[in-house]
Design goal:
The protein is globular. The protein is an alpha/beta fold and about 400 residues long. About 40% of the residues are buried. It contains 14 helices and seven strands. A five-stranded parallel sheet has the order 1-2-3-7-6, sandwiched between helices.
Length: about 400
């Protein structure tokens, strides 16, 4: 008996497509790629720096090109003139010509870098410490000091110089900047607003409200935090537990960066990128500059009560003016003659300021009530009439 007949079964050739059709249960859907929620929002772990404290350039960065040397020469000029203005304003306070003056010595790179990153038709929203920035923007120094002398609410016309009045309440300018920037964008203009902020102001509600509004409505505004380590006498460690203030942007969907605020080249480069980002329609940007105020909070403050002298001296070695001068000298873009010329310009600027500030201003007491409200309230009208009556009585008594 022969072997049983075995029917040959032809081999089955399958393709991947056939397997997928035949085995629906074994199909694995492609895993969707979940975007990193903080991509593009977080600052770098260390502040951006392009110059060492002695002015030596660090390796160039493809993602952050250094500003043109012409811009840096102009930055140096304005920083030197600005420092001399700051010293003169401090002296005027001691002479009784100013009621108060908050010095920004040591923060020259931030003050001037912010101005140079903007166009003339962009808007600046300053705090009380930005007198140097306003003079660097070209505003008459006597008009800048009008507020601090007590002659008026603001000495310049904000609509002419595109600069809001210096803001004494903390952080309220954050909301103003967001509103103006959104309004400009809504009308089709590419205006950018830059709001100066102190580290202490980041603890105020208006700072957070401004960031949130600007982020939601993509307002073209740059929030520039000058972290000079103290909110009057309160150190940064008592204000926040965040790795740095720049990290506060991520909570609102605002891209952020931190920079060495005493490195003029890095400050101008980072702020230029932030302004470009805002102007392109990408919404707000938050920049934190790590810097230090060399003088007291104001002339009414005794900084020795809460700052160690060794700390102040350590920051003196990071002087932003000397840093930029060393860098430009190393590149052959600055020599002794050029340095002397800028110094002479600064002295002339200070002398003119002294002369004009020594002239006693003529102020109408009733102007105190101007520009408070568009339409004076009944209470304001009543108060104005009381002052008017007192002035009239004084005049009669002198007659």
């Amino acid at each position: 008996m022969g072997p049983p007949h075995v029917q040959e079964v032809p081999a089955v050739t399958t393709t991947p497509q056939a397997v997928r059709r035949a085995s629906p249960r074994t199909r694995r859907p492609a895993t969707p790629v979940t975007p990193e929620p903080t991509a593009g929002l977080l600052p770098q772990a260390e502040p951006v720096r392009l110059l060492d404290p002695d002015g030596t350039p660090l390796p160039p960065r493809a993602d952050l090109p250094a500003p043109p040397v012409e811009a840096l020469r102009e930055m140096y000029r304005r920083m030197v003139v600005g420092r001399r203005f700051d010293a003169q304003a401090t002296a005027l306070t001691k002479q009784g010509r100013l009621a108060v003056y908050p010095s920004s010595r040591g923060q020259e790179a931030c003050q001037v870098g912010a101005v140079l990153a903007l166009r003339d038709d962009d808007w600046v929203f300053p705090t009380y410490r930005e007198s140097m920035a306003l003079t660097a923007r070209g505003i008459d120094p006597v008009e800048v000091l009008t507020l601090l002398r007590g002659d008026g609410h603001c000495g310049y016309d904000p609509t002419v110089v595109h600069t809001a009045p210096q803001c004494t309440p903390l952080a309220t300018q954050c909301v103003h900047a967001a509103g103006l920037a959104y309004g400009e964008s809504y009308q089709g203009r590419d205006t950018v607003a830059l709001a100066f902020i102190g580290d202490g102001a980041t603890s105020e509600g208006d700072f957070h409200e401004g960031l949130n509004f600007a982020a939601v409505f993509k307002a073209p505004v740059v929030y520039f935090v000058q972290n000079n380590k103290y909110a009057i006498s309160v150190p940064l460690s008592r204000q926040t537990a965040a790795p740095s203030l720049a990290y506060k942007g991520v909570g609102y969907g605002v891209p952020s960066e931190q920079v060495d605020g005493n490195d003029p080249v890095a400050v101008l480069a980072v702020l230029t990128r932030a302004v470009t980002h805002a102007r392109a329609g990408h919404g707000p940007y938050l920049v934190e500059a790590h810097t230090y105020r060399m003088e007291a909070h104001t002339n009414a403050d005794d900084a020795s009560r809460y700052r160690d002298p060794d700390e102040v001296e350590a920051w003196r070695d990071r002087d932003p003016v000397a840093r930029l001068e060393a860098y430009l000298r190393g590149r052959g873009e600055l020599d002794d003659a050029a340095v002397a010329q800028v110094a002479a310009e600064a002295e002339e600027y200070a002398a003119d300021l002294r002369t004009r500030m020594n002239a006693q201003p003529v102020v109408d007491p009733l102007s105190l009530f101007d520009h408070v409200f568009a339409e004076p309230t009944p209470q304001l009208v009543e108060q104005r009439e009381m002052v008017r009556a007192e002035l009239a009585a004084d005049a009669e008594g002198d007659a």
